[in-house]
Amino acid sequence: MRHEHLVTAKQLSRDDVEAVLDRAAEIAANPAAVRERHADKLLGLLFFEPSTRTKMSFETAIKRLGGDVVDMGSVDSSSVKKGESLADTVRVIEGYADALVLRHPQEGSARMASEFVDVPLVNAGDGAGHHPTQTLLDLYTMREAADGLDDLTVGIMGDLKYGRTVHSLANVLTNFDARQHFVSPESLKLPRSVRYDLHEAGAKVRQHTDLETILPELDVLYVTRIQRERFPDENEYRAIAGEYQIDADTLEQASDDLVVMHPLPRVDEIAPEIDETDYAHYFEQAHNGVPVRMALLDMLLENARGDEE
Ligand code: CP
After folding, report:
1. Cα(9)–Cα(125) distance, integer angstroms
2. How far is CA 17 from the centre of its chain?
3. CA-nearest residue, atom 1 of ligand 1
4. Tens digits of residue pLDDT in 128-158
5. Is the separation of the CB atoms in 252 and 214 below 8 Å?
6. pLDDT grade, residue 304 (50/70/90)?
7. Residues 261 and 222 sit within 8 Å (Cβ to Cβ)
8. Pairing with 28, which of 150, 229, 236, 291 sits 20 to 30 Å away (CA)?
């Protein structure tokens, strides 16, 4: 992979994905081999929105590579509260760190910020835009659980309008010629821009308002949370909340090998009774964030080192 920054999943070719996933598998098999690999490196964490998995797995990843983090901390305790712009903030923090990880509520913020810095910048979620490292760990999980990424039939259900993990995943699945079934209420369909990207890529796509008819065909069911925080009108959220949930009864029509995934956090989309079944892969998916982000950081930091020499 030869990118300075990772700001959108649209950057990721099939070769890029395979390179990161292969490196992640090597690291997962022998983490001791990379324990001191980036011993002098600092990763700058800039999280303008809440996060558990992405922030902590990036922190774990750099520490397991021998490095450390410098963390901007909460927006409330930073100079963002005094009105400092995102451009100034990243320009300052690139002087403290060897790479930056940015989560921000504004779509397009990662691309804009990347134009102000020379160190690698990774988009950890920009509003309802993209979340490319989530896609890498989603594909790693899918590859392990479904025994490869080719010829898959994938159902993606829930909030397809605001769900940035969906926008990233749908784009990258086109590199693997997946059949994609999108299941959502009419009001939360994929945005026009994402549908356009999929059309341009020649993706095999169908849209549905209920899961029942296509469930038996699926190899993977990727469930997402309705993104309450992104609804301009709380009443609109309430009208939809509670729909698009799965439980043991729902999965009676599924293949025994179905892989159920979710980027997490979940609210009530997947009943806890599914957690102990062979369908459930979402906790393993979250854990896979560490080797995948280790692989990505390793490659970006190596590229940056090569550029300095
Ligand atoms: N999947 C994901 O991005 O989780 P967090 O919001 O906890 O980082």
Report:
1. 11
2. 13
3. 263
4. 999 999 999 999 999 999 999 999 999 999 9
5. no
6. confident
7. yes
8. 150
